[in-house]
Design goal:
- This protein has two helices and no strands.
- By secondary structure, it is mainly α.
- Helix content is about 85%, strand content about 0%.
- The chain has one domain.
Length: about 70
């Protein structure tokens, strides 16, 4: 009886591993196919959230650091 129960638990674990492997392979295939599109969309979203100041200089970042230290 116990060996039958262990066999079923092992079988369930193997099934989960197979499902995870299939999902991982599908994700790799999709990122391979649409990688450039995803990079472009994410880059556009970052630029939109950044307010177009992607070319921030070192002086700007140091003044922001000084402002935070004054708080």
């Amino acid at each position: 009886m116990k060996t039958n129960m262990k066999r079923k638990e092992g079988q369930a674990m193997v099934e989960y591993i197979i499902i995870v492997a299939v999902v991982a392979i599908a994700a790799l295939v999709l990122f391979g196919m649409f990688g450039d599109t995803i990079k472009g969309k994410l880059g556009g979203a970052v630029d939109a959230l950044d307010g177009g100041s992607a070319g921030q200089t070192e002086a700007d970042s140091s003044s922001a650091l000084e402002d935070l230290q004054e708080l």
